[in-house]
Design brief:
Layout: E1 3-9, E2 12-18, E3 23-28, H1 39-53, H2 69-78, E4 87-88, H3 89-96, H4 102-110, E5 123-124, H5 139-149
Length: 154
């Protein structure tokens, strides 16, 4: 069974989906069409509220992001990037053990189904520039998340 919830955030509405044991999706800027409460959703919303308030730097809510083995390797590595730190696409590929092809790595980053909790916003180009963001309003959403964490960019 799937469960859904929406919360308000500084980025606008954030919708979450979950199954019995973990968060399976997060969408910025959209409201869930229905709400079905579940403890894992309550935990995730509480942690997100703390993150936006500046009192949480790490998420420990369980996640279940399903993709190709390549994507899952990228997403696992994204989860290991500490709060307030950034990495390039090439560095991410190396750290994930999948090679240094920045476009392939970028494609996997862009398909992350659980942004913020799996912090894909912490990935920048090798020159510290923002190259894009698929969540919310795109680049303005990424800028807001980077600024919340004090990550410098150009």
């Amino acid at each position: 069974m799937q469960y859904f919830a929406t919360m308000n955030s500084p980025l606008g509405p954030v919708s979450l989906s979950a199954h019995e044991h973990a968060i399976t999706g997060l969408t910025i800027g959209q409201r869930a069409s229905s709400t079905t409460p579940h403890p894992v959703l309550t935990q995730a919303m509480s942690q997100l509220e703390e993150y936006f308030a500046g009192t949480r730097t790490q998420f420990d809510v369980p996640t279940d992001a399903t993709g190709t083995p390549f994507q899952e390797a990228i997403w696992r590595t994204l989860s290991e990037i500490p709060f307030g730190q950034a990495m390039s696409y090439q560095e991410l590929g190396l750290a994930a053990g999948v090679g240094t092809a920045p476009r392939a790595v970028g494609g996997a980053v862009g398909k992350n189904p659980i942004p913020i909790i799996i912090p894909c916003h912490r990935i920048l180009a090798s020159n510290q520039r923002i190259t894009g963001y698929s969540g919310g309003e795109g680049i303005p959403t990424k800028v807001a998340l980077l600024e919340l964490e004090g990550i410098s960019y150009r």
